[in-house]
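Incident review: delayed structure delivery

Summary: a single-chain prediction request sat in the queue longer than the usual turnaround. Root cause was a stuck worker, restarted by the on-call engineer. No data loss occurred. The affected request and its eventual output are reproduced below so the record is complete for anyone auditing the incident later.

Affected input:
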Amino acid sequence: MKFILGKKLGMSQVYGENGNVIPVTVVEVEPNTVVQIKGRDKDGYEAIQIGYGTRKAKNIKSAQKGHFKDLGSFAVLKEFRFDSKGKKSRGEEQESIDSANLTVGQKIDVTIFTPGDSVKVTGTTKGRGFQGVVKRHGFHGMPASHGAHSVLRHAGSIGQRFPQHTLKGMRMAGRMGTNKLTTRGLKIVTVDLENNLLAIKGAVPGNKGGLLMIQSQG
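Output delivered after worker restart:
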């Protein structure tokens, strides 16, 4: 399994072999560092912990300094999980951690990917603030004529006479966005080794500058 952390720079477009325009998301991928390899015997699950980015040493807690050792001052730590039992998740065969063939302190960069690779990208969606039910949940709203007044984008009834309380899970207005989202079935279009950039076909979750987890699929 191939995986790496990167930063979303924004969208652009490239031209294919036939001259057709391909919309792509450009991701900046600085070299990642393997910080820890977790095993089932000691940690209860299998995962590889990756460090990405840098921050000032004064902002790192003493416990983190001991964990990082001499590997660097990382801004972000993320884990990529494995399963040696070969279980399937969302129809995908889970690989053993031994197949990664990585060691603590090893660097991971864009060279692990090649154009045409299928990947899934996980990020945090854009925050939309407090939104009503029409935008947040796709409600159709109330009738716009025949005496309707000031209720066009209202939610309508949120319950019944009995039981005399609002049921859990009722879709209502509230904060929208800033959720973890994974987009699957994306393709690597180009790999820029000189500038540490990946061009991924289509859109990926999140704002410009947002952290992305890129993982091979299939």
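Verification: The chain has three helices and 14 strands.
Action items: add queue-age alerting; document worker restart procedure.
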